[in-house]
Amino acid sequence: MIPALTPTYNRADLAFERGEGAWLYTTDGRRFLDFAAGIATCSIGHGHPHLVQTIQQQAAKVMHVSNLFRVPQAEKLAQRLVDNSFADSVFFCNSGAEANEGMVKFARRAQALAGHPERTEIICMEGAFHGRTLAMLSATGNPKYLEGFGTPVADFVHVPFNDIEAVKAAIGPRTAAVMLEPIQGESGIKVASTAYLQALRAVCDETGVLLALDEVQCGIGRTGKLFAHEWAGITPDVLSSAKGLGGGFPIGAVLATEAVAKGMTAGTHGTTFGGNPLACAAANAVLDVLLAPGFMDQIQARATLLDSLLDDLIKQAPGVFAERRGLGLLIGLRCIPPVGEVQAAAQRAGLLCVTAGDNVLRLVPPLTLTEEDCREAVSRLRQAVLSNSSADTTVLETSL
Ligand SMILES: *Cc1c(COP(=O)(O)O)cnc(C)c1O
């Protein structure tokens, strides 16, 4: 018989009762170090007092009023994102897929208003992940995800990632935008090179094509800057955000330049829940932490520490880990044995991680983690892959 909860996930048999910082506690009293962070979403950790108090207080005042009225919390959040990014205007929604849908609408509408309604095609990347709505399945392009869901939505084409010549060759009179993740998350923590992002910006400028960045996973401080594209010294025309923005409370956003956003006049797009007082209060509390002086430096310092500890571990376990990649606290370890086995061994050692494509173990801890958390995580991962006392790890040892 089908479970009451539709079984679209293979869930680990763990249920958590509470969390504190980078730690999660199960209902039966076990404690885990959380380097999954709700898939790079619990950006300021579990039970952060400022986030908890803000949500409690806002919930007691007013949670939801609709976008038929002014929402001061949304106005404040939009202004802070504008003040701290390339953007001139921000639209709020509820998830990453929804933010990406909005981003495509912004781009097409801007092209139409510029006299090019025929420019509707979006050039996407092989290995992309943009979400599970019907249009974003087509932007993602993975045949496995599309199977059984009918004709793909038109006007999404795919080119190899990190290949500027492929983009140039794909751009035509109907191209509206190039859409990509500066760091591909789901397909295995693949970083777009600085030279590639800079060349993309130049090609887009030359051809009137818009640069649309999906920073749902790599944005909001994950790489040690508010947005990952800042490392390349470029700016996009439009950007999607979600995951870490609400620190676990659902919220997404489309950030755009004035030139792109000005087509989005009253009635062109909408949402019932998007940008409500409760979600925006939560995101403002997250930004209070992230935008505090020195916090991005702290993220970078934690990342540097983790990188060096992980590089040592890779040297000690060359039969398990082939390579480290990523940027900041978006870390991928490409595995030699099946990544699912490494993830399971880590879980038995009390460390939660996420898998990604390309046989990669994904480490995406809360951005607020301590130095001690970094050391403890790598120590647990070492125990998971090198221990010879536990029968549970023999699977890994035999592949060493
Ligand atoms: C998670 C993710 C999405 C989808 O976000 P949802 O909130 O699950 O809809 C889109 N793009 C990227 C890069 C993601 O990591």
TrEMBL record:
Binds 1 pyridoxal phosphate per subunit. Pathway: Amino-acid biosynthesis; L-arginine biosynthesis; N(2)-acetyl-L-ornithine from L-glutamate: step 4/4. It is found in: Cytoplasm. PROSITE patterns: AA_TRANSFER_CLASS_3. Pyridoxal 5'-phosphate binds at G96, A97, F129, D214, E215, V216, Q217, T272. N(2)-acetyl-L-ornithine binds at R132, T271. Keywords: Amino-acid biosynthesis, Aminotransferase, Arginine biosynthesis, Cytoplasm, Pyridoxal phosphate, Transferase. The modification N6-(pyridoxal phosphate)lysine is found at K243. One of its GO terms (cellular component) is cytoplasm. The keyword Transferase applies. Its main location: cytoplasm. Its cofactor is pyridoxal 5'-phosphate. One of its GO terms (molecular function) is identical protein binding. May also have succinyldiaminopimelate aminotransferase activity, thus carrying out the corresponding step in lysine biosynthesis. Belongs to the class-III pyridoxal-phosphate-dependent aminotransferase family. ArgD subfamily. Homodimer. PANTHER family: AMINOTRANSFERASE CLASS III (PTHR11986), SUCCINYLORNITHINE TRANSAMINASE (PTHR11986:SF113). This is Acetylornithine aminotransferase. It comes from Acetobacter cibinongensis. The gene is argD.
